[in-house]
Design brief:
Layout lengths: L1 H5 L7 E3 L9 E3 L6 H6 L8 E5 L2 E4 H18 L7 E5 L4 H12 L3 E4 L6 H11 L3 E5 L3 H11 L2 E5 L6 H6 L21 E3 L22 E6 L9 E5 H21 L11 E4 L6 H13 L2 E4 L5 H11 L3 E4 L1 H14 L8 E4 L6 H11 L4 E8 L4 E7 L1 H5 L6 E2 L3 E6 L12 E7 L5 E2 L3 H7 E2 L2 E11 L2 E6 L5 E4 L2 E4 L2
Parallel strand pairs: 3-13, 5-6, 5-7, 7-8, 8-9, 12-13, 12-14, 14-15, 15-16
Antiparallel strand pairs: 1-2, 3-4, 10-11, 11-21, 16-17, 17-18, 19-20, 20-23, 22-23, 23-24, 25-26
Length: 486
């Protein structure tokens, strides 16, 4: 099955990179080499729905026009240049995706930040990454405004009306006798614009003309810190293009496993319950973008609301953490909801729950397919995955590597251990980060000879990787659910 996809001339054939940060690693032979190339193809989906939030629906055409317009403003009005950093800090709204992809179209380095952070944590990441522009929602504005003012960084605030007086008071920003500007944008914030006040996007306008190379940096994504401060994992465009292509391989392999020709049938509709700053969400959104699928967003987790959204939008894919997936199944069982449209339950962001697959199979047989994987911030999402019968027969497995991922089970001296022996999981491949932002010591410790040392203990059995002990990064709050692990 995999040979049909990865063999010479296959859609997911790989070659070994000869130069650049991924030199020596396997990379996809075909496909986009930058995130700009990747997102530009979505323009062809036109009026097909892309992002659905409440009663709002943003089509691919509207999304691309808005991202292009914002990219032009960042380049032509703000004077930002390739390599400048652009922070994105918002809840799960369509505008988050517009901001992130505008940065890519402009050749900037996007820096998504954890929306659950305190002001101190935001300040650390801002000092570390040094952005020239902050793309934030009203709720995050009081947490970053002082830094932006002192650094002279520009700010675009989205949904300023969400920035309530209570939020400002809690942040200690509401001065005696000073009233806020309209919709919550405060007068002490200089250089701030409201996104809602910007000119309407021209649907025929192109993004700015910039030349982006595969080896250029695309993102800095901060890890959950196990000790000390979080580290900014830096990924090139080539790496992120590989990370964006990996979900498409997972989908194609899953389809073949069901006896279906990949790419046939209607575009998927995904209910996504992972915060956009998390790499698991990046994979879910890119999977939809690859096929013109729609993404239904949830602001907070609620099982009954999830059932309603699945029925209303005929959701085919659920993407969330194992805990929310289990609650979804429990609610469906309790209410007698047959989840008739659902075809795939994809869980990530935390260690798999073996009994979850059993629950899914006991109630729905093989109609709803389980999918689970293994990935880290440094790998751009899942680089190991298992679907369908692979999950059912081996529910605790991390799965098999993507075509552009090599796996080593390493002993104490870094030597490769034979199959069946437990050692540290090392990874190498296109989607991996090139290192940590301005942290040579941490980079040298984690990245050696092109390999990334995960710190997790694992074993390979019949080509499948089973993680037996994971390092325990801090919890990640996923729309109302605590997720441990990257």
């Amino acid at each position: 099955m995999r040979a049909a996809l990865t063999g010479p001339g296959g859609p997911f054939a790989v070659v070994r990179a000869e130069d650049g940060p991924q030199a020596g690693s396997l990379v996809y032979a075909d496909g986009p080499r930058t995130l700009r190339e990747f997102v530009e193809t979505t323009w062809a989906f036109g009026d097909q729905p892309f992002l659905i939030a409440g009663e709002r629906s943003c089509s691919y055409g509207e999304f691309f026009a808005a991202a292009s317009a914002l990219a032009c403003r960042l380049s032509e009005v703000y004077g930002l240049r390739q390599g400048d950093r652009a922070v994105v800090a918002m809840g799960n709204r369509p505008e988050w995706q517009i901001a992130f992809w505008a940065a890519q179209l402009a050749g900037l380095v996007a820096v998504p930040l954890n929306t659950r952070w305190t002001e101190e944590e935001f300040t650390y990441a801002l000092d570390d990454s040094g952005p020239r522009v902050l793309l934030v929602d009203g709720e995050r504005l009081p947490l970053v405004a002082d830094w932006a003012r002192k650094a002279g960084a520009r700010v675009i605030v989205f949904h300023g009306g969400d920035h309530s007086r209570a939020h400002r008071a809690r942040a200690g920003r509401l001065s005696e006798g000073v009233e806020p500007y309209v919709d919550g944008v405060e007068p002490y914030v200089e250089g701030v614009e409201r996104y809602e006040d910007l000119p309407a996007p021209d649907p025929l306008a192109a993004p700015p003309e910039v030349e982006i190379r595969p080896e250029d940096d695309a993102t800095i994504i901060y890890t959950s810190a196990t000790d000390g401060r979080p580290k900014g994992a830096v990924a090139t465009h080539l790496a992120q293009a590989g990370a964006a292509r990996n979900p498409r391989f997972h989908a194609a392999a899953s389809a073949l496993g069901r006896g279906v020709i990949p790419g046939q049938g209607p575009a998927p509709v995904t209910l996504l319950n992972v915060p956009f700053f998390h790499v698991a969400a990046f994979a879910g959104v890119c999977a939809a973008m690859s096929s013109g699928g729609a993404v239904v967003l949830m602001s907070t987790w609620d099982a009954q609301e999830a059932l309603r959204l699945i029925r209303k939008h005929r959701v085919t894919h659920y993407s969330g953490v194992p805990a929310t997936a289990r609650r979804l199944l429990a609610a469906a069982t309790r209410t007698g909801d047959g989840l008739e449209s659902l075809r795939i339950v994809d869980t990530g962001g935390a260690a798999p729950l073996p009994d979850l697959v059993g629950e899914l199979t006991a109630r729905y047989g093989e109609r709803i397919e389980p999918h689970q994987g293994y990935g880290l911030t440094e790998t751009g999402g899942d680089v190991l995955a298992a679907s369908g019968d692979e999950c059912r027969l081996h529910p605790g497995s991390g799965g098999r590597p993507t075509p552009c991922t090599e796996v080593r089970i390493a002993g104490p001296a870094g030597e490769a251990l034979p199959e069946g022996e437990t050692g540290e999981l090392w990874l190498r491949g296109q989607a991996l980060a090139r290192g940590y932002w301005r942290d040579e010591e941490a980079t040298a410790q984690a990245f050696t000879g092109g390999w990334f040392r995960t710190g997790d203990l694992a074993v390979i059995q019949e080509g499948r990787v089973r993680v037996v002990e994971r390092e325990a990064p801090g919890p990640v709050e996923c729309e109302g659910e605590t997720v441990r692990g990257e």
